[in-house]
Structures are given as structure tokens and as C-alpha cells.
Amino acid sequence: MGTSSLPTGTDSPAPPHDGRLTDTAEHWPVVESVTPFRGAKTSMRTDTVRMPDGAVADRDYQVHPGSVAILALDEEDRVVVLRQYRHAVRQKLWEIPAGLLDVPGENPLHAAQRELYEEAYLKAGDWRVLTDFYPTPGGCDEAVRIFLARDLSPAGGEKYAASDEEADMELATVALPELVQGALAGELHNSCLVLGAFALTAARATEGGLDALRPAEAEWPARPFAS
Q1: CA dist., res. 155 & res. 122, Å (int)
Q2: Among this protein's residues, is 32 annotated catalytic?
Q3: Residues 67-86: pLDDT tens digits?
Q4: Does the keyword Hydrolase apply (predicted)?
Q5: Does the pTM of the predicted model rise above 0.85?
Q6: Which secondary structure element, helix H or strand E, spans residue 152, and what is its range?
Q7: pLDDT over 90 for what percent of the chain?
Q8: What pairing do the DSSP bridges indicate for beta strands 98-100 and 170-175?
Q9: Which residues does 110 contact at the CB level (< 8 Å), separation at least 6?
Q10: DSSP classification of residue 112
Q11: DSSP class of residue 9?
Q12: Active-site residue, from 142, 166, 178, 207
């Protein structure tokens, strides 16, 4: 097998980027938009988009209300996980608590607190934004915010009456390194669990650690909300 080295200097396929990488808002003109399918929570849309060179092209994508997920960390530094059947991929996946932003403009922190109660019967005394991401921006406008929740305690009151797939959920706690190892080994696949585990690991290694994470009510341009 031959060897190769990364190109350097003027031979590089792209120049080095100066400064900090930041995604920016941009809107190419939409000539026409149709919605051939509307579901209970999401829909499919076809936009005819005018490209910078003047040509037009159709772009099909799923319209999604957005989601929140919660990486809940207990006093033993273990992550709360749950196992749930996902019909689209025909698997039971280990995940972290998560749910849809069902109400337009809903405060994502309030939604996360609700999901942590409903799926894990827990409340948290400390909330931070861990990371924001688009799971599949090539074909869906879903935006997800992952929160870090600490200082956990039982929620109190009546437990949420789960139904459908949620009625069959299993709950557990697991050490963070096990989640990282499972993701790297191809044994864990849920995007919020994988990204949340990697983000927490990276946050702990950066200057300021977890105290440098954004506050729970940090602005979220992808899904504007009322405080």
C-alpha cells in the first residue's frame, strides 16, 4: 500500500481560513412553494429556488417544528438514557430524553423541563445549553437544542402516563465514557445521544469547562422563542 501526505502551502486544495468559523443566515429567492403532504407533526414541502446564476431548481424537504434533548447528569457523573423503539429504522435505540417543540414559539427550556419529567420523572436544578445542531439540513429544516441538566432529583407528583412507543421505554444511567466508546464502535446511533456525549466530553476539555457553556435561555435564531 502506498503512502500519502496532506498537501501543504500553495498545493493545498483550499486556503486556510482566518478567524472563527460561523454559520450565517442566507435566503435564496423562492419562486414557488407547494406542500404535497401534511402529517400530524411534520409535512413535506417543495420549493422552487432561484440559484445565484439565475437558474431555478426544486428542493424537497421535511418541515419540522424543532426538538429539544436533555443530557441529564446525576451526582455520580452518569448520564440518564432510555431505550425506545424507532419504527423508521426498525431498531430499539438508546437515547437521551428528547421531544418536539409542539407549540410555535415555545420556550425550549420549558419544553426540555417537560420532557425530562415525562420521560425520566426527573427535574434539574442547573440547566445549560450544551449545543445546537441541524440533524439533516440537506433534506429537513429540523433544529435541535441539547441541554445539559445537572442537580437532578425526583420530579414529584404523578408520573406521566406514557403511551405507544413510550410505554415500552427502558431507563438506565451509564458513565459518559461508555457512551463515547459505544458511539465510536458503531453500537450507539441516536444523534442526540452521540452528539451530546461528544459535546460534553469536549466542553470539559475546553477553557472554563462546563461553566463556560451558554445559559439555558441563550438566543436560538434557528427557533426564536419567547422567554
Answers
A1: 4
A2: no
A3: 999 999 999 999 999 999 99
A4: yes
A5: yes
A6: strand 144-154
A7: 81
A8: unpaired
A9: none
A10: H
A11: G
A12: 166
